[in-house]
Amino acid sequence: MAQATPTAERAYEHVKDLILDGTYGSGELLSEGQVAAELGISRTPVREAFLRLRSDGFLELYPKRGALVVPVSLGEGRDIMQARLLLESYALDTLAARGPEALRRVGDDLAARCGPAATPREARDAGHAYHAALVAAAGNRTVTGLFETLWHQHQRFTAAALIGRQEVAEDTAEHLALARALQHGDAAGAKDLLHRHIGSILRRAGADGDSLALPDRVA
Description:
The chain is mainly α and 219 residues long. Helices cover 67% and strands 5% of the residues. The protein contains nine helices and three strands. The protein has helices at residues 6-20, 32-39, 43-56, 74-98, 100-111, 120-136, 141-158, 165-183, 187-204, and strands at 29-30, 59-62, 66-69. It has a three-stranded antiparallel sheet with strand order 1-3-2. Helix 4 runs antiparallel to helix 9 (187-204). The longest helix has 25 residues, at 74-98. The chain starts with 5 loop residues before the first helix and ends in a 15-residue tail after the last helix. InterPro entries: GntR_C (IPR011711), TF_FadR/GntR_C (IPR008920), Tscrpt_reg_HTH_GntR (IPR000524), WH-like_DNA-bd_sf (IPR036388), WH_DNA-bd_sf (IPR036390). Residues 5-72 form the HTH gntR-type domain. Keywords: DNA-binding, Transcription, Transcription regulation. Pfam families: FCD, GntR.
């Protein structure tokens, strides 16, 4: 795939950010001209950005009409979060099989990622980096790739639940608690905290966080 031009990249980040912060709402129809006017650019890089956002699952394109912000139902959201739980639980199981030292190293890395975030975008980026690091630590590139694809869907679902200061603080506290459990070699506790963390995200988005099935705990 050809590398996006700087202007197309700017258009992509602009539209994606406004979807994720709720400015462009679920089911809203966008036009190339609208976005081009907002950014003071031509329609061509906006068209490139729309195509990329369609590949990421954020938009559905309708020729001569525009781009629809793809809505995500609560049922779809629950499926997305269940898949996240399975992938991240796999990572924890893999690390547990390697022993306490492997858990501690990953715990140290994750704890260092739990600093404060000044903006919702920084909070989203920090959350992605944290969970991606956990999955990558398992060393399975296929699982890591699946997680990255799934994260786009996760972002679409959680865009409906705007992140405020309280939510950011809760996320940071939950991330740190999970990291501390790994630092102490407590894989089972970390897995339980992961389940609670993903359940809390579901509840913020309006779904039943208690409906997730928890994988078997590490012995």
